[in-house]
């Protein structure tokens, strides 16, 4: 089995690569050109993500790294090289993407929508008729904050919480249109919010909660530099819009990668198959509030409605710590994963995403004391 993979240096893509290598596959990694070579970046990311040394030793033998630009026709490659790579693939996995929740739609479309067009063209060109696998997000369900989102649904009727969700919705539409036009099967994975219990690493792309942790550390450092440190034990109250009875689906990234590969192995090769890759137990909003209170020196109070501007304190007016993410504090939505569970079989359940798990994955200082690692 020869797999073409994008996004291999990313938070999820590096774990997918480990799963492929464990199964004996050969992999062509299509990576963006950067000053630091893609092969060097890949080795660094895998080592920092906890990949075993035995797999790292196989990189040069089983992984072929190609610098490719998904903003360009033929990925910026010569016609001959493009066709050689396409003809080599038995399966194509598109995991690359811009996951910034606070980015503008035009910038996100340039990567998440235009990039998938290039990868669909790459897949269509392959003489082995490879199956296309696309990593989307469960949050294409958009701004529907309650009820149940189902795997077969794909609609913009509820609007979107951020431009990232919309760009991934538009990308899924392209996969469906391509599959109809080409009479080809495809697989769409919709993971929930992926997290890990390894501390942030400067060479490894992180997850959204790690970004919030970085914002908190920067704010603390800036306050200290400006002589604005709070007296010991003093934590001002910050009211933000959210549901105290809400919950979010957070999923350990290692489990997600294994589940996706297992689903691909068992999925029938017809039509477009869509799977929610989610945790069987949501994380209560109270846990996220406790995490945020640990990261920021404040007391948080969730309110059903937005705090009136006239009533807001100066701190509350600037308290949107991650635009694009804060609307999720209002969510009570659940994701149905019937199709995924039917195919997965007896896969051990993922670890609970509780406060110790989240602290270990967002606060480097607390990692060693938080709990033993559960990531593989």
UniProtKB/TrEMBL annotation:
> Cellular component terms, GO, for this chain's entry?
cytoplasm
InterPro entries tied to this protein: FAR_NAD-bd, NAD(P)-bd_dom_sf, NAD(P)-dependent_oxidoreduct
Picking any one GO molecular function of the record gives: aldehyde dehydrogenase (NAD+) activity
Domain (Thioester reductase (TE)): give its ranges: 5-260
- Report the leader peptide range: none
Membrane-traversing stretches: none
Tell me what this protein is called. SDR family oxidoreductase
Organism listed in the record: Streptomyces morookaense
């Amino acid at each position: 089995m020869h797999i073409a993979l994008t996004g291999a240096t990313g938070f999820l893509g590096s774990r997918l690569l480990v799963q492929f290598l464990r199964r004996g596959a050969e992999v062509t990694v299509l990576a963006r050109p950067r000053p630091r070579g893609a092969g060097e970046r890949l080795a660094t990311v895998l080592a920092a993500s906890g990949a075993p040394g035995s797999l790292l030793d196989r990189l040069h033998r089983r992984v072929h790294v190609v610098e490719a630009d998904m903003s360009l026709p033929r990925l910026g490659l010569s016609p001959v090289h493009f066709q050689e790579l396409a003809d080599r693939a038995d399966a194509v996995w598109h995991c690359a993407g811009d996951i910034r929740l606070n980015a503008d739609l035009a910038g996100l479309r340039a990567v998440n929508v235009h990039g998938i067009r290039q990868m669909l063209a790459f897949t269509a060109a392959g003489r082995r008729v490879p199956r296309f696998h696309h990593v989307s997000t469960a949050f294409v369900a958009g701004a529907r904050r309650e009820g149940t989102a189902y795997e077969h649904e794909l609609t913009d009727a509820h609007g979107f919480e951020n431009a990232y969700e919309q760009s991934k919705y538009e990308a899924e539409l392209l996969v469906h249109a391509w599959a109809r036009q080409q009479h080809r099967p495809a697989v769409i994975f919709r993971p929930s919010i992926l997290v890990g219990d390894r501390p942030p690493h400067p060479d490894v792309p992180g997850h959204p909660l790690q970004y919030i942790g970085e914002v908190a550390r920067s704010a603390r450092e800036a306050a200290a530099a400006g002589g604005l440190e709070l007296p010991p034990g003093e934590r001002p109250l910050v009211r933000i819009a959210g549901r105290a009875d809400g919950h979010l689906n957070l999923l350990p990234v290692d489990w997600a990668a294994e589940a996706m590969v297992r689903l691909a192995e068992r999925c029938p090769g017809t039509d477009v198959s869509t799977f929610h890759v989610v945790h069987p137990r949501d994380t209560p909003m109270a846990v996220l509030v406790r995490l945020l209170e640990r990261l920021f020196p404040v007391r948080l109070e969730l309110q059903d409605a937005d705090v009136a501007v006239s009533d807001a304190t100066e701190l509350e007016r600037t308290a949107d710590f991650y635009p694009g993410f804060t609307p999720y504090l209002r969510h009570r939505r659940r994701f149905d994963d019937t199709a995924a569970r039917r195919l997965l079989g007896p896969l051990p359940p993922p670890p609970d995403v509780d406060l110790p798990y989240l602290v270990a994955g967002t606060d480097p200082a607390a990692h060693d004391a938080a709990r033993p690692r559960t990531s593989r």
